[in-house]
From TrEMBL:
Protein name: beta-N-acetylhexosaminidase
Protein family (similarity comment): Belongs to the glycosyl hydrolase 20 family.
InterPro entries: Beta_hexosaminidase_sua/sub, GH, Glyco_hydro_20_cat, Hex-like_dom2
Keyword Iron-sulfur assigned: no
Leader sequence segment: none
EC number: 3.2.1.52
Catalyses which reaction(s): Hydrolysis of terminal non-reducing N-acetyl-D-hexosamine residues in N-acetyl-beta-D-hexosaminides
Keywords: Hydrolase
Boundaries of every Glycoside hydrolase family 20 catalytic domain copy: 92-438
Keyword Transmembrane helix: no
Length: 469
């Protein structure tokens, strides 16, 4: 019989049967339980004319089952088709990244994104909490991080192109931050929906906001910098003094305590070395550390962060640039620069997340720029996401096993509002979720038709998405 409901991601096995379950309170009536009879990642959901039953092999699988049930119930208006579903994900890591530094989003706006992620059985929210343009997490003992570092006086209008003298600014202060209490609340909100929040403290680059707050964290404390008002990559990176490492210990320890997840993301991307090259303190440090190349300094930061987090019982995740130095074996690599990087990361034995900027960067245009709001550039359509070949080079079986999942990225330079974030995230996130779940492979035409029928659920959740063509 035809599929009466368009589920996205599509479960591994769906068997429809005749009849409907008539109910006005499905969430009160469904019976739910954990069972040892199912593998930990699996859930089974059956709906018959007399009721619904959901069993799962673990809390995580139960959350997946509830989220599938939410899709079935949304828009069903009290008459729910009978069906038997058995389902499990292919990938443990089904992530969405959100940059709350370039633009700040209120807790309620992040919660709405979490709701929509859960609806698609995504299970990781990666919060990019710090960057040159704004520091967004309260750190006890460092009040200026949020008094000064969380605010920029104005933001660039349009792209950072042409002569600097021709750049225009909006003249409007932008900022905000989350208290530790708010973040703990968000962690709990997400946990109840089956989502783990991974915090990112990007280091040692992308630190201009912190240096603006505490100039002694930089390489040239006499040279005052503000919180960055343009996009791109800042040359102002962390200095190498004891004070800097004490600061990192405090920040990472507090962040590790706020977020119960077993990982902390330490960034590591795009760290220019020009300041270290010019700094006599950096040269002295290199001698002390026995380093011959400035490029080796970053490895010291990575190792320090890994050691501090290890004491807190956590492992590090980092962007793939960190592969340029020695790494702890249990580091998880987030591959963003090119899919070819998967081969070297997994070849060295690192567990790796696919987050490449060819298919998973949702700050790219999703159609001809002429008809779209300003974006950073590039073109990644929902079809590109659905049909992407995520592993361009052949990986052997051991390497394949090290690919723990997929993640979409929402860098927000050109997303000043939560509505704009939603527009850029959806419906590409639906396609990403289907790929991350590892639904049975279908044609693009089948997926597009199913997605079209699924979109009213996003309406029901109050999500503003880009309509399909
Ligand atoms: C990145 O896009 N800089 C990870």
């Amino acid at each position: 019989m035809p599929d009466p409901l368009a589920l996205v991601p599509y479960p591994q096995s769906v068997i429809w049967s005749d009849g409907t379950w008539e109910t006005s309170s499905p969430w009160d009536e469904i019976s739910v339980g954990i069972t040892e009879d199912l593998p930990r990642t699996e859930y089974a959901l059956s709906i018959s004319p007399t009721g619904a039953n959901l069993t799962a092999g673990s809390e995580a699988a139960l959350a997946d089952g509830r989220n599938t049930f939410a899709q079935i119930v949304t828009g069903s208006e009290g008459s729910i088709p009978c069906v038997t579903i058995s389902d499990y994900p292919q990938h443990a890591w089904r992530g969405m990244h959100l940059d709350v530094s370039r633009h700040f989003f209120a807790v309620a706006e992040v919660e709405t994104l979490i709701d929509a992620m859960a609806l698609h059985r995504l299970n990781v929210l990666h919060l990019h909490l710090t960057d040159d343009q704004g520091w967004r997490v309260e750190i006890k003992g460092y009040p200026k991080l949020t008094e000064i570092g969380a605010w920029r006086e104005q933001s660039l209008i349009g792209h950072m192109s042409g002569e600097e003298s021709a750049w225009e600014f909006d003249g409007t202060p932008h900022g905000g931050f989350y208290t530790q209490e708010e973040l703990r609340g968000l962690v709990e909100y997400a946990r109840r929906r089956g989502i783990m929040i991974i915090p990112e403290v990007d280091l040692p680059g992308h630190m201009q906001a912190a240096i603006a707050a505490y100039p002694t964290l930089g390489n040239f404390p006499d040279q005052r910098v503000g919180v960055r008002e343009v996009w791109g990559i800042s040359d102002h990176v962390l200095g190498v003094s004891d004070e800097v490492f004490d600061f990192l210990r405090d920040v990472l320890t507090q962040v590790a305590d706020i977020f119960p997840a077993p990982y902390v993301h330490i960034g590591g991307d795009e760290c220019p070395r020009v300041e270290w090259e010019r700094s006599s303190a950096a040269r002295t440090r290199m001698n002390e550390w026995g380093l011959t190349r400035v490029s080796e300094i970053q490895g010291r930061f990575t190792q320090f962060a890994a050691d501090v987090l290890s004491e807190a019982g956590k492992r590090i995740i980092a962007w793939d640039e960190v592969l340029e130095s020695h790494l702890p074996d249990d580091t998880v690599i987030m591959n963003w620069r090119h899919g070819n990087g998967l081969k070297s990361a997994t070849g060295r034995g690192f567990r790796t997340i696919i987050a490449n900027n060819e298919h998973t960067y949702f700050d790219h245009y999703q159609a001809d720029p002429k008809g779209e709001p300003l974006a950073i550039g590039g073109l990644t359509t929902v079809k590109d996401v659905y049909t992407a070949s995520f592993t361009p080079q052949k990986l052997d079986e051991d390497q394949q096993k090290l690919l723990i999942g997929l993640q979409g990225q929402l860098w927000t330079e050109y997303m000043p509002t939560a509505e704009q974030v939603q527009y850029m995230a959806f419906p590409r996130m639906c396609a990403l979720a289907e790929r991350a779940w590892g639904s049975p492979e279908q044609s693009w035409d089948e997926f597009e038709e199913r997605l079209r029928a699924h979109l009213p659920r996003l309406d029901a959740f109050g999500i503003r998405y880009r309509p399909l063509d």
